[in-house]
Amino acid sequence: MKQNINNIFTIAQKEFADNVWSPRFAVLMFIFLGISFSYTYKIKFGSSFIDAVQTIAIFAPAIGIALGFDAVVKERRRNSLNVLLTHPVFRDNIITGKILGAMMTLALVVFLVIAVITGTSLIISGKLANFSELSRLFIFGILTFLYLLVFLSIGIFTSVITKSEINSLTCGIIAWLNLCVVFGATVMIIATVVTGYSLFDMDDNQQFRELTYDLQKLSPIHHYAEASIGVSDLSMGSIINQETIKGVLDTSYTLGEWAGEFWENVVVLAVISIVLIILSYLIFLRQDITR
């Protein structure tokens, strides 16, 4: 048991180091942090976070995909899995270590993003954050981690089921674009076709809005948007419905009231990741990795 744990952490440390020092990770982080800084520079702490959060919601999943798309398929293509298995390392050690290492890298990404947003906002506003604000930012960081973990899980899943890095990356990019970038516009088109109303005739269209809201629940960006800033969607071209509680950063409500309103969104994000990771785990354990 102790040897298995040591093997897992050794693989996780190697995966973490490989991710952090890879050129693609550095480029993605530089671009994303630059975008986050530019958006956050325009707002003050405690005011609307929607621009910064929308940047995270749309662009940060690409980092999750990038961290996971070659986690397994790369080792299979290089035949390094066969070499690993000649040592006292079991398959479950390998996949668990890969997932843990990727999650550690993702946690670092979230920490850097939240640090940039918080630091920039505090400098611009010129005030100190109190314990309540910091605790809400901490919960916001957990929400962001859970949201990006969904796309990391998608990346790992595609890495397990495909036979090349290109195929895995292509599947991941398609999932990201459909779930984050064009999802809102797609939902509105579907709702328009079903209800028979045009996109510009919806002031009194309750049926259109209800169908749009129900369809938005199919994407993780909806659950992240509701729980974090209290809007129904943040993807491009979407119709945004504002909730009574404006997310976890709304200090006019207690954290208990926020949890009572949005606990289902948090559970959905966690369950999606768990299901994808379990599927990846089971498929990998059954695969013939000698080819």
What's the short version?
By secondary structure, this protein is an all-alpha fold. The protein is built from 13 helices and no strands.
Describe the secondary structure blueprint for this structure.
Elements: H1 2-20, H2 23-40, H3 50-59, H4 61-68, H5 73-77, H6 80-85, H7 91-125, H8 131-161, H9 165-181, H10 183-195, H11 206-216, H12 220-229, H13 255-286
Helix pairs in contact: 1-7, 2-3, 2-4, 2-7, 3-12, 4-7, 4-8, 4-9, 7-8, 7-13, 8-9, 8-12, 8-13, 10-11, 12-13
Describe the structure.
This protein has helices at residues 2-20, 23-40, 50-59, 61-68, 73-77, 80-85, 91-125, 131-161, 165-181, 183-195, 206-216, 220-229, 255-286. It is globular and about 65 Å long. The two termini are 29 Å apart. The longest helix has 35 residues, at 91-125. The chain has one domain (2-286). It has 291 residues and is mainly α. Helices cover 74% and strands 0% of the residues.
Keywords:
13 helices, 74% helix, mainly alpha, 291 residues
Number of domains: 1
Can you write the helix and strand succession as a string?
A: HHHHHHHHHHHHH
**Average pLDDT, to the nearest integer?**
80
The biggest sheet, with number of strands, parallel, antiparallel or mixed sense and barrel status, is:
none
- Estimate what percentage of residues fall within beta strands: under 5%
Structural class: mainly alpha
**Euclidean distance between termini CA atoms:** 29 Å
Write down the overall geometry: globular
Taking pLDDT < 50 over at least 5 consecutive residues as the criterion, the unreliable ranges are none
User: How many β-strand stretches?
Assistant: 0
Total helical elements: 13
Rounded Rg: 20 Å
Helical residues, percent: over 70%
